[in-house]
Design a protein that fits this description.
Layout: E1 5-9, E2 13-17, H1 19-26, H2 32-35, H3 57-75, H4 86-97, H5 107-119, H6 121-126, H7 128-133, H8 136-146, H9 148-157, H10 161-168, H11 177-182, H12 188-201, H13 210-215, E3 218-222, E4 225-231, H14 235-253, H15 256-277, H16 291-297, H17 302-305, H18 310-321, H19 326-337, E5 343-345, H20 346-354, H21 358-361, H22 365-385, E6 394-402, E7 418-421, E8 424-427, E9 440-448, H23 455-473
Helix pairs in contact: 1-9, 3-4, 3-12, 4-10, 5-15, 8-9, 8-10, 12-14, 15-19, 18-19, 20-22, 20-23, 22-23
Length: about 475
């Protein structure tokens, strides 16, 4: 009998690997691609705002495995000692590996490369492999199928097992409960980070009773496949989950300082790659064999991707700070010193003006939200089109996140959060006023470089005029 291996975790207590198959899956932890996740922070630059939010993708991935195992026990309740079916083992392996393709600072590196291609559109056609190499979902598939990870997976379930694991993550298996455990609106990924991220950030945003929720999770089946649901006595726990997850966006993920740092990182990396592309890497202090150059020149090589982690950037920040290119030098120094570009929050300015408009006071909250969002978009789009505000000095940051993506499929569906009421299984949005409220969180912000002493004054003046103009026209 193979001994159970236990890893202590701050969120879930103990993470257990039982039996032969689970312990073979555990061996993935020793692979260089997985060990790399120790050096990739879960929340990118958020520890610049929340000092203790320095937890890694490695710890999060272990947490997702733990939650997935508890959900899997609902699907295969007869299993003891970790002897799951092939699909069950593939589900657990996929849960553990779901973030294996993330670049440095998690999603921030993808944004940086998007920024580079926006500034250099011809490069997207010239180097399509570079675009694929920063897409964490594509990279996850590639690593699972074409690396040492694939060899380890084959030892778990045979030659075709890596393909089954990859299929769990490609979102094409409609109605598959095993895939739903790994990727859905109520998956092990969300159930871990909705607990882990606020815990390490030190944020008291709502709360999720994970034990109660999982204890009341049931398995349902229909012609469309299998799905999870809870009965009405536990639906409040699901409601808390949806609301808490939603609140993490304004509280942590979209914090203005974090987004400002992400913009500065994107601008810096874009400028560095521009130097590399033109053969001027010496101007940023990088030797010919530096991993940034190897990655840029051969992004299709997985061995180059495995070197890209947060520590690589911090190791190069002092070379960037000594660059002969003044703009690269200055941005690098500002990031190192936490001198974040200031921001003009257009939403708050529109909200302030709207507060004194009588007709808006009579609107519903949803209508008022839509009005403000529309005005913000008008103002920011106009600012972004003006030559004096185009370039490195200004960046328009916008993003929207609804509380929940409702599907309203009666009878249960793996793509929605299901609740049983009166013997019928429905979408949670059908019975929860909170989830059905169409609540959303949108940002409309303009970051600007205060090195230009007059830019702030010009922005403030023009934004103010455009807000008043747009309000009148609406």
């Amino acid at each position: 009998m193979i001994a159970t291996k236990i890893i202590k975790d701050a969120v879930h207590g103990f993470i257990e690997f039982e039996g032969e198959s689970e312990n073979r899956i555990r061996q993935l932890l020793s692979d260089p691609f997985f060990q790399r996740l120790r050096r990739v922070k879960q929340l990118g630059f958020s520890d610049y705002v929340f000092p203790s939010a320095s937890h890694s993708r490695f710890a999060h991935s272990l947490g997702v495995f733990s939650v997935a195992k508890r959900m899997l026990s609902i699907v295969e309740p007869h299993v003891k000692g970790g002897e799951w079916s092939d699909e069950g083992n593939a589900c657990l392996a996929a849960a553990l590996l779901h973030d294996i393709g993330h670049g440095m600072f998690s999603h921030s590196f993808e944004k940086a490369m998007d920024f580079y291609f926006t500034r250099n559109p011809s490069q997207k056609e010239l180097k399509p492999q570079l675009n694929d190499a920063v897409d964490h979902e594509k990279m996850t598939q590639k690593i699972i199928l074409h690396s040492s990870i694939s060899e380890s997976l084959s030892r778990v379930g045979g030659r075709d097992f890596p393909k089954l694991v990859a299929a769990m993550l490609d979102k094409s298996r409609e109605g598959c409960i095993y895939s739903a455990i790994v990727s859905s609106q109520l998956d092990a990924d969300r159930l871990d980070y909705v607990k882990r991220d606020p815990y390490f950030a030190g944020v008291s945003s709502g709360g999720v009773d994970l034990d109660w929720l999982l204890r009341n999770l049931k398995l349902g089946k229909n012609d469309g496949g299998s799905y999870f649901y809870v009965n009405s006595k536990a639906y409040i726990s699901l409601e808390q989950f949806a609301v808490t997850l939603f609140q993490l966006y304004p509280t942590i993920y979209f914090h203005k300082k974090t987004r400002g740092l992400e913009f500065m990182f994107s601008l810096l990396m874009s400028k560095v790659f521009e130097k590399i592309a033109s053969g001027q890497e010496g101007q940023v202090g990088l030797p010919k064999n530096h991993p940034f150059l190897s990655f840029f020149e051969h992004p299709e090589n997985l061995e180059n991707s495995v070197l890209l982690d947060d520590s690589l950037f911090w190791g190069a920040i002092y070379q960037f700070s000594a660059s002969s290119d003044f703009s690269i030098q200055r941005i690098a120094q500002r990031i190192a010193r936490r001198e974040i570009f200031p921001v003009l929050d257009v939403w708050k300015k529109v909200e302030k003006h709207s507060a004194v408009i009588p007709k808006l006071k009579e609107m519903s909250a949803a209508a008022r939200f839509k009005f403000i969002d529309s005005v913000c978009a008008d103002v920011c789009n106009e600012i972004s089109s003006r030559p004096e505000f185009i370039g490195d000095g200004c960046y328009y940051d916008t993003y929207g996140r609804p509380i929940y993506k409702r599907k309203d499929i009666d009878g249960g569906n793996s793509g929605q959060i299901n609740v049983e009421v009166g013997g019928e299984v429905v979408d949670i949005a059908s019975i929860s006023p909170l989830v059905a409220s169409a609540a959303a969180f949108n940002i409309h912000r303009i970051y600007y470089d205060d090195n230009d002493g007059s830019l702030e004054e010009r922005l403030e003046r023009d934004v103010q005029d455009l807000i008043l103009k747009s309000i009148r026209e609406h």
